[in-house]
Amino acid sequence: MTFNELNLNHRIVDAITKAGYKEPSPIQEQAIPLMMEGKDMIACAQTGTGKTAAFALPVLNMLEDVSGEHPRAIVLTPTRELAIQILENFKKYSRYMHLRTVCFYGGAKQGPQVRAYERGCDILVATPGRLIDYMNQGIVSLKDIEVLILDEADRMLDMGFIHDIRRVVSEVPEDRQTVMFSATMPKEIEALARDILQEPETIKIASTTSPAETVDQKICFMEKEDKKTVLSDFLKMEGVKKSIVFTRTKHGADHLVRDLGKLGIVSMAIHGNKTQGQRQNALERFRSGNIKVLVATDVASRGIDIPKISHVFNYELPEETESYIHRIGRVGRAGQTGEAITLCSKEEMGLLYDIEKMMEKEIPEIETEKSIVIERVKRGERRRFGKPVKEKDDAGRKSRSERAGSRKARAHKEEQTSRIAMVRAEKKERLERRKLRLEGLSVDEAVAAVAKAKKAETSEKTKKASEKPKKAAASEKPKKTGFEKFYKKSAEIFAEATASFEKKEKKNRESREGFGKKQAGLKNKKQNTAFGGKKKERRAS
Question: Exposed (0-12), middle (13-18) or buried (19+): which is 116, by Cβ within 10 Å?
């Protein structure tokens, strides 16, 4: 299939051809026709499969060149980098059209963004936080929105934007078209889709828990302190032309940049503590080839499309298993090949187990000079700090995500149980009041009688609860101390040790008493001196 067969505007097709695209990807083949029909849609696909064009092209085709006073399409996205990238894609695809795209994101000055919006806006790309800020100021109006797009919806929920999303949804017209793109489909996303989408079509391209086939995965086992040396050796290889190194923390990324600099490797870091200017500068220098190594946290693992990345290095394994798929998805994009190398220490074997369990495959191992031997467990066994645990232990142990889910389920169940108990108590009180009313009491008298009975019942329960511990304490036998247990085998040794202990205690007690008397004498002497005691002594003499 070609883009011409998708019934797109010829100016959009010309722009796509100029950008170098020849054939639509599978997600584009399925999503574009459905969006052009005006249907609500949920699209779930691997990272790097062309999701941005899948919603950008039909939006441009539907809006054509008709401009209004307010934006007619809005795209919500979790991060600044992704928002800027989507803005650039819209501009690239609409180069032969008279549509204006504006981008709102945090970490930048408000003035330039507001002025761009006031000049005219047909398509608005925004992060939820900055959009809500402008809505509260009365700068933005969403009353003319025809298409609402949530890009990387699962990531937005992870970052806590659920309330902001619902606020935006409440401000746009009800007869809009809503489209949701997500790399994974957890239960929270399904619940949100049921609330804001109407009879949506579902598209799922391949598995979202397995990487693209164009990514060659490798793993190397080593001690934690050897990781910097091994990483620098990999980065100095001829085949490593442009690479991203992922760390788990922001401070870890900054430290790694400094350490690589000492080893003669120039790199830059990108993470949430950097300003928007610093992050954009690092991305531009990396994209242009000015630097060949970008050290990043998971902020760059979603949606950032930088061409010709040859390698991804997992310097530290991620806590979330899905983040591994997004990290290595920076290579092998749009059909290109790439290599993903993971540096794993024995402390991270539990994280590795969860990742391999999710992918249902074992990552091939490569060896270096610093490699160590770690026993790789068989299928069904649990990896924990490099040591296999029996299969029967794994049966009762859940993964991190499952444990988190079960904790939420328990909390929800407890809340539901308490709510049911409260409802039953209220129902019981209503029945009691009705019964008293039938006996001839007034409303106030019935209420007072039920309240009195409830108070008496509560006091009785409290009394019973306080009596239980006393009975238990009376029935308990006096426990032996550790001292008695230690010497219980020999009565003679026990008696001798007891006498020695009492003698020592007596000596200590006498010492304390003597010290107290001495201190009291000194205190009295000071008081006498303070009130002229010495002068009196001299006069007497």
Answer: middle
